[in-house]
Design a protein that fits this description.
The structure holds two protein chains of two kinds.
Chain A: H1 2-15, H2 23-34, H3 37-43, H4 47-58, H5 63-70, H6 76-115, H7 134-148, E1 152-153, E2 159-161, H8 162-165, E3 190-192, H9 198-206, E4 211-220, E5 231-241, H10 246-261, E6 267-274, E7 277-286, E8 303-312, H11 314-320, E9 328-335, H12 336-344, H13 351-354, H14 357-360
Parallel strand pairs in A: 1-4
Antiparallel strand pairs in A: 2-3, 4-5, 5-9, 6-7, 7-8, 8-9
Helix pairs in contact in A: 1-4, 2-6, 3-6, 4-6, 7-12, 9-11
Chain B: E1 2-4, H1 5-11, H2 18-26, E2 31-37, E3 43-56, E4 59-68, E5 73-78, E6 88-98, E7 102-103, E8 107-109, E9 112-114, E10 117-118, H3 146-149, E11 155-160, H4 171-182, E12 195-199, E13 205-208, E14 216-223, H5 232-240, H6 248-260, E15 264-268, E16 276-281, E17 287-289, E18 295-297, E19 303-306, E20 311-314, E21 318-319, E22 332-338, H7 341-351, H8 356-363, H9 370-385, E23 388-391, E24 394-396, E25 405-409, H10 410-417, H11 423-432, E26 436-440, E27 444-448, H12 459-470, H13 491-505, E28 509-510, E29 516-517, H14 521-524, E30 549-550, H15 555-567, E31 573-580, E32 594-601, H16 618-631, E33 637-641, E34 648-658, E35 661-669, H17 671-677, E36 684-689, H18 690-696, E37 712-721, H19 726-735, E38 741-750, E39 759-768, H20 777-795, E40 798-800
Parallel strand pairs in B: 12-23, 13-16, 28-31
Antiparallel strand pairs in B: 1-11, 2-11, 3-4, 3-6, 4-5, 6-7, 6-10, 8-9, 14-22, 14-23, 14-24, 15-22, 16-19, 17-18, 19-20, 20-21, 25-27, 26-27, 29-30, 31-32, 32-36, 33-34, 34-35, 35-36, 37-39, 37-40, 38-39
The chains are: A alpha+beta, B alpha+beta.
The structure holds zinc ion.
Zinc ion binds next to loops of chain A.
Chain lengths: ~375, ~800
């Protein structure tokens, strides 16, 4: 045990100090006997060892303290030299103790930390991530694009008067265009809205132009098969002011398409028919699945229909009390499920409403 | 609407391919949704001529034919009986392919080699059933491709005709459009009309009693016909456009409808009592049996075609069983009329009877096309079924319909389109569409559409025509001037996004459910008879009884989501939904409150090892809700025990109060209800009225200066009766209105030994702080003493020594 040997030696030295000779001779001898600083360092294996060594050297009854007390007893001419020699070895031992002390402390700390090791590969502590419904995400994206273009959000009831859902939109009771939309009836005058277009009418009835709104919401059709669900989501848009024209309609929707589907997405405006717009159009984008070469999704046409739009029909303006000679405007409607399906490559619309956790967790 | 490319080409001269024509039509609003090559799947089949028929040496049922394929005579074995030497028949040569993927090879049948196969109509995909071989016309070119010889070298075109374009519900109409778009000439169908014998005038009589519902009624008489099967070309063409062949008389009327768009009806004259037609309204409750054998009860806004005694047809919709043309028919009265679109539509809708005729009449037939179609059909019947067309025709048209004359301003066209169409360009387009230009000024036209375009009655209709034919693609895009309208902030939208984010951050997936529910669910939820949730909006025509009312609560949908997931082996589920529900509110429209609801079942956290696999419970659900309320900055939300939710566990149900008013509930499902819905008993749910919480939410966070002086914390542990709620402890403290109390936090809750039975221990850290100065210990102690006193006094609390 190196430490016990050191301590014994130190005690031996201390015992021999009484009445010994001149300090100037005694001090170098002591240092020779005790060994150099390295020896001390070697003996100390722990901070406790080091404390014991320190006590034997610098403690009240330690070697250095005893020697220091002896200095006044030296001959006056020797005192200075003795003091210098003592300070020198004291300094050396002190430095060595400090260095070894730091070494040992670092090692001991490292060991202590190593013993606190945890398994960092175990899963973290978390509430889990909830995901938004994919239709919500896409609707949010669509709404934000139009908000950036200066549109505001408007709302209307889902259980709607036949009057707003059809009649003010230029579809009187026996209009064949009603065949285009299988309607759920609550009574003869009340329906589940078949599109978000009644929000247009309600908004226009409540204020004067300029009007620039989008209306996201649920709509209902009495229809359920592989490609239809009785409820789905639309975003309706309307812009009315002096001097709004078809060219603006194209500009706004092309901007939307490039933000939604990427710049450079080829687009075409194809004449169509809606009772509440004229001229009317359907808008196709180049098939995002096949790039236009033809596939099952685009029924080998290379194009995908994504929205319907048109200039607001003068009859609709008359119904809401706007002068069609003074104001013009455009309206459009987008089906959110269709866009969501294209965006994520979902092939069955019914998945949206089953709410299987394994489906919901993917978006 | 189905038509065929060859049919179109009979009327319009064009070198364009079917795809080019389809593209032009599509880009002008007649969307070609499908193209189908009629000869698809047939190759290597030629016209063969049977040279001789000999018995098969080894089989009685088979014959060995020598067949000329145009270049050589080959032995072919055949099983059919309907063949004669000299017949022309379809011959599938070795290597041929037939529809359905069948391949023909040289084959030995009972020891004799056969060089191909003779085909029936069924084998060529021309008919569903056929008996015997298909016998081709005598002039079919021997060796020629069968696809061409039987008219299969053609394309069926499926065109989406929008409801405003009744004129395009026929081949001629689409051809007319194609001719206008491609600047090609249009050829009207040519036919000969040979009249014989006495004039119809003395032989049939027509009276229109209601000229408003029947503006025009015309007819012809064809006598001595022989009704029977139609020739192959007729059957082939009708088949190509999706019409079933009946007999040559009916087929002729259908052919003319598919060609010219005018629905026609043929009556067997034997059954027209009094040789008379009376067009009148039905009597309320009158009963009539239509061609399809269904007895229908009519109302007085429906129009009937009657003979002297009884109804014989439902005008514009369907003929009657009592007068239909059969194989015994010899004399035919042919009807061609124009009926009021709205009347036909109402009739068809009320009776749920949608026919090719009603489809056209309700959209608006061509009142001026009535006569041409009538003559065309009469001529065709005489051609196919023989017989004589009586001289003359009946044409009752008391008040001829006129298309309106409309002013079209050039400036208006460009104002709507944002384009620069020249006046000449517009005039050219109108002429191509056969729109009559009555007058022309420097900057406008006086226009009148042809009678087959009932959709063109207003200036805007002509603007659309100009735009459509000019091409939407040629109108350049531009952005409207910015900020046409001031943006309005949308608090509901913003709040709903924040609420969604908060719920998702708590690990809840968003679900979206149908807005329907089963009215039986109210009983299954144990709701009392007068619960507001029973005030439903009921659908007249639901898809099923289980979806027959609009949701008044999100709960049944959430339970349904859980059941579906459990049935698929998914056991951990935390979901929320943000949706309107619908509460009936007397006459008029219902209330549509916006609800946020959620359900938690199964593991509490995504890392169950850490919670020891603990299941989500009431406090997890409440934590999520509190997190959401906090995200929305709802400050004055308080939870109290809920006693009015029969579907919740009576001891584990909380009511949310916002500003003192009830706004929703949170709770564990009542075990009886869980059993009834077949879901686990530890399921927790919540449902909150979203608008009440956003109204209570502070839109702007209110800034308070940071405290400048240190706080003093004091803990207090009290033993209170078990039924004293945490809320009442807080309320007791609040009652002191101590300005120094900054915060009170529950840090420990304990029940059980050594706490006496019926009691519980609650421990709080109370933070004291003054905004004016550093509190001294004495000041904090004084406040703390007051709190201890009030708890002792009000709640019978025993203060535990620390
Ligand atoms: Zn594609």
């Amino acid at each position: 045990m190196p430490l016990t040997r050191f301590l014994k030696k130190a005690r031996d030295i201390k015992a021999g100090l009484e009445g010994a000779g001149r300090l100037a001779e005694l001090i170098p001898r002591i240092s020779d006997e005790l060994g150099a600083e390295e020896a001390i360092i070697k003996f100390a294996q722990t901070t406790d060892d080091l404390k014991a060594i320190e006590l034997e050297l610098f403690g009240k009854k330690g070697i250095i303290s005893i020697l220091r007390k002896k200095i006044p007893q030296e001959a006056p001419e020797d005192r200075k030299e003795a003091g210098r020699l003592l300070n020198e070895i004291a300094g050396r031992y002190e430095a060595a103790l400090k260095a070894r002390g730091e070494e040992l402390a670092a090692a001991e700390r490292a060991q202590a930390l190593a013993s606190q090791r945890i398994d960092v590969t175990m899963p973290g502590r978390r509430p889990g991530v909830g995901r938004p419904h994919p239709v919500t995400t896409v609707t949010r994206e669509v709404v934000e694009i139009f908000l950036e273009m200066g549109f505001s959000v408007a709302e209307g009831p889902e259980v709607e008067l036949d009057y707003y859902n059809f009649e003010t939109l230029n579809m009187p009771k026996d209009h064949p265009a009603r065949d285009m939309q299988d309607t759920f009836y609550v009574s003869d005058d009340v329906v589940l809205r078949t599109h978000t277009s009644p929000v247009q009418v309600r908004t226009m009835k409540s204020r004067r132009p300029p009007v620039q709104i989008i209306a996201p919401g649920k709509v209902y059709r009495c229809d359920a098969d592989v490609s239809h669900t009785p409820m789905f989501h639309q975003v309706e848009g309307l812009m009315v002011d002096r001097g709004i024209n078809f060219s603006h309609l194209k500009g706004v929707l092309e901007t939307f398409i490039s933000k939604m589907f990427g710049a450079g997405t080829a687009t075409r405006f194809r004449p169509s028919f809606f009772p509440f717009t004229e001229p009317s159009a359907e808008v196709d984008i180049r098939c995002v699945i096949c790039g236009g070469n033809g596939c099952r999704v685009c029924k080998s046409t290379g194009w995908l229909e994504i929205l319907g739009c048109g200039m607001v029909d003068p009859e609709v303006f008359r119904a809401v009390g706007y002068d069609p000679e003074e104001f013009t405007g455009f309206a459009f409607g987008l089906g959110m499920e269709r866009i969501t399906m294209l965006k994520y490559g979902i092939d069955d619309i019914r998945l949206f409403y089953e709410n299987d956790m394994r489906f919901l967790g993917q978006f | 609407m189905r038509t065929s490319f060859n049919w179109l080409k009979e009327y319009v001269e064009t070198d364009l391919t079917v795809r080019q024509v389809s593209d032009r039509l599509t880009m002008a609003g007649l969307e070609v949704e499908g193209l189908e090559y009629l000869g698809e799947g047939i190759s290597g089949v030629v016209v063969g001529r049977i040279v001789s028929i000999n018995p098969h040496p080894n089989a009685d049922r088979l014959t060995l034919c020598e067949v000329d394929n145009g270049s050589e005579v080959l032995p072919v074995i055949c099983g059919a009986k309907n063949l004669h030497a000299g017949d022309r028949v379809p011959l599938a040569l070795p290597g041929a392919e037939l529809p359905g993927g069948m391949k023909i090879e040289k084959a030995k049948l009972r020891g004799v080699l056969s060089f191909g196969m003779l085909c029936s109509e069924k084998e060529l995909g021309l008919a569903k059933e056929s008996s015997g071989l298909m016998i081709l016309p005598e002039d079919a070119p021997v060796g020629g491709d069968i696809v061409k010889a039987v008219g299969l070298d053609d394309w069926a075109m499926e065109i989406n005709v929008t409801p405003n374009r009744p004129d395009c519900l026929c081949a001629l109409g689409i051809a007319r459009e194609a001719a206008a778009l491609t600047r090609s000439a249009l050829r009207q169908p040519k036919f000969k009309l040979a009249e014989h014998g006495a004039n119809i005038a003395g032989r049939m009589k027509v009276t229109i009693e209601d000229p408003e519902l029947c503006p025009r009624y015309a007819g012809r008489l064809v006598t001595g016909v022989k009704a029977g099967p139609s020739p192959a070309w007729m059957r082939r063409r009708l088949q190509a456009v999706g019409v079933r062949s009946i007999n040559n008389v009916v087929d002729a009327t259908n052919y003319v409808m598919m060609e010219m768009g005018q629905p026609l009806h043929a009556f067997d004259c034997r059954f027209l009592a009094g040789r008379e037609i009376i067009v009148r309204r039905a009597v309320e409750g009158e009963v009539f049996t239509t061609l399809d054998g269904v007895e229908r009860t009519l109302s007085k806004d429906m129009l009937l075609i009657c003979d002297a005694d009884r109804p014989v047809a439902l005008a514009g919709v369907m003929g009657g069983q009592n007068s239909e043309v059969t194989d015994q028919t010899t004399d035919v009265f042919l009807e061609s009329a124009y009926f009021n679109p709205s009347c036909v539509r109402k009739t068809s809708r009320k009776l749920g009877l949608h026919t090719e005729a009603s489809h056209r009449f309700e959209r608006g037939a061509d009142p001026e096309g009535v006569i041409t179609a009538l003559d065309r059909a009469a001529s065709m019947i005489a051609g196919l079924a023989g017989g004589e067309i009586a001289a003359g025709r009946i044409d009752e048209y008391p008040n001829p319909l006129k298309m309106p004359v409309v002013t079209l301003r050039v400036a208006r066209v460009n104002e709507i389109l944002g384009a620069g169409l020249e006046k000449d360009e517009i005039a050219d387009i109108m002429k191509r569409l056969r729109i009559k230009i009555h007058e022309e000024t420097e900057d406008s036209f006086l226009l009148q559409a042809p009678a087959f375009r009932p959709d063109l009655t207003r200036e805007i209709d002509f603007v659309e025509e100009a735009a459509r034919v000019y091409g939407y693609g040629k109108i350049r895009s531009s952005m409207p001037a910015r900020a046409a309208a001031a943006r309005e902030p949308d608090t509901v939208l913003a709040a709903s996004m924040r609420a969604r984010d908060a719920m998702q951050d708590c690990g809840f997936h968003e679900v979206v459910n149908y807005s329907f529910m089963d009215p039986g669910d109210f009983d299954r939820l144990g709701l009392s008879e007068n619960d507001f949730r029973r005030k439903t909006v009921t659908l007249q025509n639901p898809l099923s009884a289980g979806q027959s009312v609009m949701r008044t609560t999100l709960l049944p949908s959430l339970f349904g989501n859980l059941s579906l997931n459990l049935s698929r082996g998914v056991r951990d589920m935390k979901v929320f939904e943000l949706s309107r529900v619908f509460i009936h509110a007397g006459p008029g429209l219902p209330n549509e409150p916006l609800k946020i609801g959620g359900l938690a079942c199964g593991a509490r956290a995504a890392s169950p090892w850490e919670t020891g696999g603990r299941k989500a419970d009431f406090y997890d659900m409440k934590g999520a809700v509190e997190q959401m309320l906090d995200a929305l900055r709802v400050a004055n939300a308080v939870f109290a025990a809920e006693e009015d939710a029969p579907f919740l566990h009576p001891g584990k149900a909380a009511r949310l109060l916002v500003g003192g008013s009830p706004a929703g509930y949170i709770g564990q499902v009542h075990p009886d209800i869980a059993e009834r819905w077949d879901i686990p008993a530890e399921v927790c749910v919540f449902e909150i009225d979203f608008r009440s919480i956003i109204e209570a939410a502070s839109a702007l966070p209110s800034y308070k200066a940071l405290p400048r002086y240190p706080a003093v914390e004091r803990d207090i542990a009290v033993i209170v009766p078990a039924d004293v709620t945490s809320l009442s402890v807080l309320k007791a403290m609040e009652s002191l209105k101590l300005g120094l109390v900054e915060d009170v936090k529950l840090f420990d809750y304990y029940e059980g030994a050594p706490i006496p039975e019926g009691k519980k221990s609650l421990a709080y850290t109370v933070t004291y702080r003054s905004f004016e100065k550093t509190l001294t210990d004495e000041e904090a102690n004084l406040a703390h003493k007051k709190i201890m006193d009030v708890l002792k006094e009000r709640l019978g609390a025993e203060i535990r020594e620390q």
